[in-house]
Write a structure and sequence with these properties.
By secondary structure, the protein is mainly β. The protein has 3 helices and 28 strands. A 7-stranded antiparallel beta sheet has the order 2-22-19-24-17-14-13, with no helix packed on it. Strands 3-4-11-6-9-12 form a 6-stranded antiparallel beta sheet, with no helix packed on it. The two termini are about 35 Å apart. The relative contact order is 0.18.
Length: about 375
């Protein structure tokens, strides 16, 4: 418990805290780092070049700096109390900056929600969101009339393309016990030729995502994109940068038991490859001791040996070929030029990206709904 608390204190000190994404401002980057996150890179001076496998390491905040073609990753981990009749926390919200609550208080945050935690209706254009749920529930609703509820082990992969509005709420369905939520949301860029494709989402349900297991059963990896030792992930959405195997996009979550050794295979040179060590105590990467809650940038054409200590460890692995194009981001829009960003805002103001067909800004799907996905074309997927 002491380790969790110290990690929370570190997160609060090292992030932009309650600044909403919409206020981060215009930024552009070439290969990896965006100007709004220079405060994070100032924490990254611990870089070392002690071998030909590790490029550098850096501590992690709430919003994780990633490398092109990824835009960033957020690790949400909230220890919510029991839910109330409105699917919000059965607790006082006094003292919280409701509507913009990013500070960990009593182990959880409301984010932009005012009744139910989460992210009420907001727009996107020009990139993809990949939401990997490890615990808890997410209720999706969007401007195409699509909806869904997904849970532990499920992944939603959404291509924003030319524009979409959506809401991502975290309903607290357990009214007799606590409601832990843990998820990653990863933003993956789209190349210029695909920034105006039709919006689309695909569900990768938990029972459809393959799991790699080492021979000694000490290591398991959820293969969300790409392949690992012959274990191939489900197809990504058709217009994704990950849909072309030549782009070598790989996304895994990795669990390693204590006192185990495992190697990540080499790939071709020139890819951006990062390992995020988010749970555990001691980990050696290519012989170097890495502290918990750190990112490790790796050369992609080298085999990487991982060795755990006395505790189990968990990691997120992201890899991909960079998109060799300028990137300009303003809050929820990611384009190639500032003029395109300005056009995105003009388009959103005039069209609302299809409008908002829901009765509220933060819809949830009731107590009885199981995991499901309703797509814009009416197709239904239902899970137990």
């Amino acid at each position: 418990m002491k380790k969790v608390q110290s990690r929370r204190k570190f997160i609060i000190k090292s992030i932009f805290g309650a600044i909403p994404l919409f206020l981060l401002g215009i930024s552009s980057y070439g290969k990896a780092i965006r100007k709004p996150f220079l405060h994070l890179s100032r924490l990254s001076n611990k870089a070392f070049m002690s071998n030909d496998i590790i490029i550098k390491t850096r501590p992690l905040g709430f919003q994780w700096e990633t490398a092109n073609p990824f835009l960033f990753c957020v690790h949400h981990e909230d220890f919510y109390p029991k839910g109330n009749k409105d699917f919000g926390p059965d607790a006082s919200l006094a003292g919280r900056n409701i509507g913009n609550d990013f500070e960990v208080k009593d182990g959880w945050r409301m984010y932009h929600g005012d009744t139910v935690p989460g992210f009420p209706v907001h727009p996107h254009r020009g990139f993809e969101t990949i939401t990997v749920v490890r615990e808890g529930f997410v209720d999706h609703a969007d401007s195409m009339g699509a909806a869904g509820r997904y849970s532990a082990g499920d992944v939603q992969w959404m291509t924003a393309g030319k524009g979409i509005q959506h809401a991502e709420m975290f309903p607290l369905l357990n009214m007799d016990k606590d409601n832990k939520l843990e998820l990653f949301q990863i933003w993956l860029n789209l190349p210029k030729k695909d920034k105006f494709v039709d919006a689309h989402f695909k569900m990768l349900w938990a029972d459809d995502i393959p799991i790699y297991s080492s021979e000694d059963k000490a290591v398991e990896a959820l293969v969300i994109a790409g392949s690992l030792y012959g274990i191939k992930a489900p197809a990504s959405p058709p217009n994704s940068w990950a849909a072309n195997p030549d782009n070598h996009v790989e996304i895994y979550t990795i669990k390693m038991k204590a006192n185990s050794v495992w190697t990540i295979p080499a790939d071709e040179a020139g890819l951006n490859r990062t390992l995020f060590f988010f749970q555990g105590s001691k980990l050696k990467v290519a012989g170097e001791s890495i502290s918990d809650y750190h990112a490790i940038e790796l050369y992609s054409n080298k085999v990487v040996e991982l060795e755990t200590g006395a505790e189990d460890c968990q990691l997120l692995f992201l890899q991909g070929k960079p998109i060799d194009e300028p990137v300009v981001q303003y809050g929820p829009f990611v384009m190639n030029t500032k003029a395109e960003i300005q056009q995105a805002y003009t388009d959103y103001q005039s069209t609302q990206f299809g409008g908002w067909p829901w009765d509220s800004k933060d819809p949830v799907h009731g107590k009885e709904k199981k995991r499901f996905a309703k797509h814009a074309d009416g197709k239904m997927e239902q899970k137990v």
